[in-house]
Design the sequence.
């Protein structure tokens, strides 16, 4: 298995763990947690779909000439955001899906990526706290 697939699998596992935590918190604190849990599942599903579409887009665009790659990447960018808009719209209209759960599911993968790729870097925090004279 190549490193890209391993990274995708790691992000998937961590997103599912985070969403499981969201669901447990909802079960404890919310009066009607089922709609929230359905929203989290709904948002997470489309978040993972968007993540996979981004991978496929970048993988294909790398092998194109620059002008074609830019047009292709832009069209796929608009497609991903359209899908996200449709997901939020459906969540707003459907009574059995909680909008906050959907947004939590959509954002969870982004939080996992930030945690695993940005906040795990010790150099990142060292650079934040360095004085200007030390640079």
Sequence:
């Amino acid at each position: 298995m190549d490193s890209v697939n391993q990274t995708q699998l790691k992000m998937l596992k961590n997103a599912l763990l985070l969403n499981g935590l969201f669901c447990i918190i909802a079960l404890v604190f919310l009066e009607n947690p089922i709609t929230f849990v359905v929203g989290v599942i709904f948002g997470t599903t489309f978040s993972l779909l968007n993540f996979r579409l981004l991978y496929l887009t970048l993988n294909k665009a790398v092998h194109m000439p620059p002008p074609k790659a830019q047009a292709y990447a832009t069209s796929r960018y608009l497609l991903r955001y359209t899908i996200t808009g449709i997901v939020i719209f459906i969540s707003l209209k459907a009574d059995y899906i909680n909008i906050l759960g959907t947004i939590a599911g959509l954002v969870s993968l982004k939080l996992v990526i930030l945690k695993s790729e940005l906040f795990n870097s010790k150099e990142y925090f060292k650079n934040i706290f360095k004085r200007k004279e030390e640079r």
